[in-house]
């Protein structure tokens, strides 16, 4: 290409008009292609969106089912209590009264953390009996354990 400085002014102006017209034509062609592509893509994009939404629904359902399948069915304490009370005809209120004797109520009001009775030990929290332990007496061992015998032998030596 020749140097632009060597060209006459009128020739440069003609070239400018021609190239500006060409740039405008390319711009218009590009814009037409862009519009055409957007129109052509609209249908597939809508279908893709619908399929993606259906896929998301299926994945959510599968996830819910996997979660349900991995869960172990349980029985709540409330249901268990009602079963014992209604099916086995156990008087729960009588048991409650047997636990909350006047001595236990007094101990709770005095701030006790635990109360012993002849049969068991009650754990107290926030003015309520929260659990019950049965205190079993251990049977005396007839002979010392091996560890105890070894210690006794070591002490004797």
Describe the structure.
The structure is a single chain. It is elongated and about 125 Å long. By secondary structure, it is mainly alpha-helical. It contains five helices and three strands. The protein folds into two domains: 9-70; 99-157, no CATH class. The model has no long low-confidence stretch (mean pLDDT 90). It has a three-stranded antiparallel β-sheet, with helices on one face.
Offer a concise description of the structure.
By secondary structure, the chain is mostly helical. It has 5 helices and 3 strands; from the N terminus they run ααααβββα.
Mean pLDDT level: 90
CA-atom Rg in angstroms: 45 Å
Number of domains: 2
- Termini separation (Å)? 114 Å
Beta strand count: 3
Residue share in β-strands = 5-15%
Spatial shape: elongated
Topology as H/E string? HHHHEEEH
Give start-end ranges of low-pLDDT stretches: none
Biggest sheet: strands side by side, in what order?
1-2-3
Into which percent range does the helicity of residues fall? 55-70%
Query: Treating each run of at least 4 consecutive H or I residues as one helix, how many helices?
Result: 5
Major sheet: 3 strands, antiparallel
Given helix and strand content, the structural type is: mainly alpha
């Amino acid at each position: 290409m020749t140097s632009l400085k060597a060209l006459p002014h009128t020739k440069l102006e003609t070239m400018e008009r021609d190239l500006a017209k060409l740039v405008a034509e390319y711009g218009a062609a590009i814009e037409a292609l862009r519009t055409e592509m957007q129109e052509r893509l609209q249908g597939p994009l809508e279908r893709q969106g619908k399929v993606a939404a259906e896929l998301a629904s299926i994945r959510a359902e599968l996830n819910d089912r996997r979660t349900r399948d991995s869960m172990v069915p349980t029985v709540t304490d409330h249901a268990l209590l009602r079963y014992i009370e209604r099916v086995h005809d156990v008087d729960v209120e009588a048991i409650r009264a047997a636990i909350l004797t006047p001595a236990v109520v007094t101990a709770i009001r005095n701030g006790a953390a635990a109360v012993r009775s002849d049969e068991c030990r009650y754990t107290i929290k926030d003015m309520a009996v929260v659990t019950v332990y049965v205190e079993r007496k251990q049977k005396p061992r007839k002979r010392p354990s091996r560890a105890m015998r070894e210690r006794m032998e070591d002490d004797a030596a």
